[in-house]
Amino acid sequence: MDMEIDRAVQHQRQQQPPPSQPPDGNGSRSPLSTSPASPASGRPRTKIIRNQNACDACRARKVRCLYGAGETRCQGCSFLDIQCTHDRPRRRRGPPNKHAQQQHQLQAHQQQQQQQQPLPGPSNQQSPSASDITSPDLNLAYQTSPASSSAHTHTTPRSHSHISASAVAAAAATITAAAATSSSASSVPDLRALIGAPSPNTGPGPAPANYLALFAPEALVQRILHDWFEKVHSLAPVLHRRRFMHRLKAGEAASDRTFCALVVSVCAATVATLRRADYHPVTVEGCLDFIEDHHLLDHGIRKPAYSLDWCIAMYNIGTSASSMNENGLGDMGSFHGMSEAAAGARFLAYYRMADLDMSEQQLLKRLFWLIFAAYCSADIFGRLSVSIVSHQENRAHLRPLPLSDSQLDTGPQLSPADGLPPWHGDTTSYVPGLNHLSDLFLIWHEAQTAPVSVYGTQEDALKHYLARIQTIIDSFPPELRWRGGLSRPGHITEGHDTQIANLFITSLNIRSNLLQKFGSTVKTRAAEHQRIVDDLLEILYHMPQHVLEQNGNSLIPKLRDCGAAYMEQMNIGDGGDGGGGPETLVSESARLKLEKLLRKLDDIDCWPGLPGVESPQSNRQ
């Protein structure tokens, strides 16, 4: 195709009359000529002048852009009958600036809200998305370069209805052929610019500004988000409250589908965790269906759009789906969400960490270890899971810093007039609890992979891992240490109590699982299981009921696993001295402890919609 076009242009040049020459025969050279003078002619070599105003079509085809003075179209564009751009400013190169793109979308949304109160009609013209790469061929605005992002202004797109369909089709065919034959990657943006490829977050369907309004009333969404940060955030500190609320208040959920899905997924995780709270009509099933029906988290196969918001949303979906049925982490939806979150988090941690700012890097590291904790929990209970930690990880580099939201604040903030009251997480960091939880699971992970022969016998390996668990517990900071029935000091928040319950019950569950894995003498196992159940009852009957319930469904399988292992150990019998057979408990005290454990488990194992669980107060003391 390119050869035919070049031959046609050359044929037109041959048919044109030659330019008039001076009497001496030394005609002046064209300023666009790139051929140097011959040394044999005796004339000095002429400096090569490169045409910097070549049009986009000629530049994409890598041919010379020839045009006369005052001509608006070059010879190649005249032959193709397409719009020529040699007399217009060159398009900006390089990747789009994320900050300028977000500011452009935000300002466009604010202008739309000011100008249009009702829904826009089909005749209204919408400005192109800032993430679209457009071409001057179609007289559209183009994205500013990163250097000019601080002085970014709106450019009103000019009408391009005068361009004929045949011209656009011919130009698209030309650029497509050039892209297929050229090894340079610079022709790909030209193709996208010419055909006007849509943004990944745009597409057919209702206007994105209506998504949250279709999901739930604004007051209900605000109440759910408030409960998340007050009661659940300490267990999963993956959101920066000031930045998150600023983005929500600025209307970013109207222009960014991924952020809208993140908001809905936080609502789903809150409803799944705080089961006794009334958030009608918002349910976990409704949240997941809403995200799927509106394609808020869809991404391509060849160009998946991994982002921190996307990974957090998929993690919330995984944890929420696990609470919808008794399969827990074995649920297909939970496995899918957690696997996608793990894939995205690992990719960002390996290849995109330098592209994130300091705040996003810390949040990504926190998410990484939360996914690791979910993986270990599923593996302990015999569920299928996706490993996220391998020998390649630099674990010290991935360990998040114990920073509070104020120390992490590098982005825009909401002013006090915007209605964002002070929050305990502004000055308190819950990352130390997450790091200690990761240390506990790393010990369990090592116990599954390290050979027993390193420590001698199985009994020696068991003692080694139990001692390491106790060392981690002894290293807890004061705000995470067990206080029994003592009152909480002023600098310790309720979020710390929630973390204490999670940390100690998790450590007891890991100890119980290690006892089952390595085994030991019957006497040693019985004594260790006895201590585990005693500690469990101490925690369950001294912690306030609402603190245990703020851990959601995560504590239930751990308590069941510990209770089942204890009951199995206490049911050991040979029908000898006791004469009661294998179903006879070793002692009456063991039976009483099991009853107390099951009674407390029945209190906190709340399933919304079932009879007898409507009241948020416990029926037993």
Features:
mainly alpha; 621 residues; 3 domains; disordered C terminus
Task: Bin the strand percentage.
Answer: under 5%
Total beta-strand segments: 0
General shape: elongated
Question: Which H/E pattern describes the elements?
Answer: HHHHHHHHHHHHHHHHHHHHHHHH
Ends apart, CA distance between termini: 84 Å
Derived structural class: mainly alpha
Number of separate structural domains: 3
Q: Determine the number of helices (DSSP H or I, runs of at least 4 residues).
A: 24
* Helix amount: 40-55%
* Overall average pLDDT: 75
Return Rg in Å: 33 Å
Q: How many strands, what sense, and barrel or not for the largest sheet?
A: none
Q: Give start-end ranges of low-pLDDT stretches.
A: 19-41, 118-208, 573-585, 609-621
Q: Can you give a write-up of this model?
A:
- With about 625 residues, this protein is mainly α.
- It folds into three domains: about 1-10 and about 50-90 and about 130-140 and about 165-195, no CATH class; about 205-430, no CATH class; about 445-620.
- The protein is about 50% helix and about 0% strand.
- The protein contains 24 helices and no strands.
- About 35% of the residues are buried.
- The model is unreliable at about 20-40, about 120-210, about 575-585 and about 610-620 (pLDDT under 50).
